[in-house]
Fold each of these.
Amino acid sequence: MDTHARTTIEIRPSEPLAVEFTSSWHYEGNTLIDEFSTVESIANWIVVYRDRLGMPPSGPLSVDHSDAERLVEAREAVRELLDSVVDASRPGAAALRLINKEAHRIHAATLVWTPNGPHLRWPPGASTTDQLVSQVCASTVRVLGSPRRNLLRRCPAPRCVLFFSALRTGQMWCSQSCGNRARVARHSARSQ
C-alpha cells in the first residue's frame, strides 16, 4: 500500500460517522492514503472529527502505535458490513461480533453539558481509541438498522474506494470530482 503523510481529510457532513470512518482509507490521485498509518495521522483524523465523536472541543488525546491496528480492524469490519449491504450479501460473523461488541461500549458514556456545550463523558480508563471505535460501531448499527441503509452506495468512479449515501435522485458518485473522473474515463475509452 502506498501512503503519504499529507493531510487529505475531506469532511462530508451529510454522511453518517460510520461511512466517514471508512473514508479514512481513500485515493488521492493515484496514491492510496491511509489516515491511520501513523500516530500523527490518527490524531489528526480524531481532531477533525472530534465534534462528531462527542468529544470536548479541547483536551488531551491519547493514541499510540497499537491503536492503529485496532482502528484498521474496526474499519475493515465496518467496510465489510457496508459492502454486504451494497452487495446484498451476508457479512462474516467476526465482523458482526466486533461491531456489536464495540457498539455496546457506548452505553458506558453519559451526556454532559459544559460551558462549551454537550459532549460525552466516558468512565475512567476509556481510551481515545475506545471512544472512537465505540462511536463508529454505534453509528454502523444505527445506519444498518434503519432505512438509511437503502441509500448506501459504493462509488463506481475509477480509483475510488468510498461509500456514500445517495441523497439525491440519480446520484451515482460520492462527489462531483468522481463524477468528472468517471465521465473523462468513459470519453477516453470511447476515443480509443
Amino acid sequence: MEKYINFVCNDQHFALSINQVEKILLFQQPARIPDTLDYVAGYYSYNEAPLPLIDMKKRLFEEKTVPDDQTKIMVVHWQGDKLGLIVEKITHVKEFQNDSENKDIEENSQISYLLETFHDQDGIIFHIDIDKLFSEEGVKELHTLMKK
C-alpha cells in the first residue's frame, strides 16, 4: 500500500504519490509570464526563488481554474527540480494498492501520464505520473523557466 494525495480538477478525482509532493500551499495569484504555454500560470515565490505554476485544469481539460478558498498549490518534485501545480481542491490522503493489476492506461498513448486507476467511494481516481504530464515542448519550456 502506498499513500496518495487526492485532488479534484474539473469534478474529476486524481492522485499523486505523497512521495512526489513536498508541500501544499494556499493559492496566491502568480506573476504572469508572457509568451508561455497556456497552462503555465506564472511564477510563485517559493523559498525565495521563482516556482513555475501549472494550472492543472487548463493542462488536463483546457479550462482555466477560477481560484476560490479551496484552490491550492501543490509543490511537487519534477525531473530533479520543483514545480507548482494549481488544483481546485485537495480532498484527502489515502492508501491504495499500487500494483500491475491496476495498470489500465496504455503506455504509448497521449494520456500515458495516467498510470492507473483506483476505485473508492469517490468513484474512479486517476493516478498521475507527473514526469509524463508534459509534451516535449512543455518539458523544454519548463526547464527554461526554471533556469531564469
Amino acid sequence: MKTAVTRFATVSAATVALGLVPLAGTSYAASCSGAGCDNQGPRATACETADVATQRTITNNGRKAELRWSFGCQAAWVRVTDDSSNSIYNSFGYIEKYDSAGKLLRSLNVEIPHGGSDWSNMLGGSSYYYRVCVKFQGNEYPMTCSTKF
C-alpha cells in the first residue's frame, strides 16, 4: 500500500511540474484589450503575437513606418525601420488615434537613432481610426503620413 501511495505522489508531482513548463511555440494570452492597451508595449503585453497584421506601410527616404494592428488586443502601434544609406539622422515614427469625427485624440512616437528599427507603445480600441507618420531630422524631406485605418 505504501508503495502505491508513493508512486501516485511521484507521478502527480511530475505531472504538475511538467504542466508548469511552457512548450516551444506556446503563445500567451494578451494582458490588455482596446483602450486598456493605450501607452503599453506590444511585446510586454503579448499583443505583438495576438493575430497581428500590417495595415499601412509608408516610406520616407529609406525610412519605413508600418501601422501594426493586433486583432487579438484591438490595438495599434507604429514599427519604424531605417534602411537608408545615410543614417546620420535620427528617424521618428508616430502613431495617431482619431475619433469618428476626425479629431486627434492621442499621439505616441518612437525615435530610432542612426539606423535600425523599433516600435512605439500602443493605442487601442476598435471604434477609432489610426494613422502612422515617419520623418527624420533635417528639413530636406517633410513628414510622410499614411491614410487612416
Amino acid sequence: MGHESKTRSAYKGTSSKAILHQYDFLGDFYLILGPELVFSYGMWEEGDTLDSAQIRKLDYHAEAAHAVGADRVLDIGCGYGSLLHRLVQAHHVKHAVGITMSPCQAAWARDQHWPGCEVRAENWFDHSATPRAPPVCPRRSAATSSCVSGGKSARAT
C-alpha cells in the first residue's frame, strides 16, 4: 500500500464554506459560550458559574492529555484558542499552537496577543510545522477590527 501525499483535493472533510457559516459569525446564541468562547459544554459542579465550569473542563483536558509542563502542544480544532491560552497561562506549556479552519476564529485569537500562543487558520490535513502568512478573515471590518459580533469577549482588542 503506497503513501499518498496530502493535498487539498484529497481532503474529504468539512468544507471551508461550512466552517465559515458555522463558526465565523457570533450572534446572540454564542453568548452562552462565556468569556473564554469555549464552543462546548463545561464540567459543572454545584455552585459553579459558566466561567468556572469552562475552566474546569479546560484544566481536565490539559491534564488528561499529559500536556502540563510540555514544551510544545498542538491543538487541532482550537476554535478561539481558549485551551491554548489556558495551557500557557496555567499549565506551564512553553508554546501552544492551535489550528482552526476558521480564519475569523484564528484572527480573533491572534488579536489577543497571548504570549506563547500561536493560532493558524489551516486544515489539519494541510498542517505544516512551518508557519505561513495568515489568511484574512472575510467578515473582518476595517472600521471595527472585529470578525465577530456578540458578547464583550467576541470583540477584538
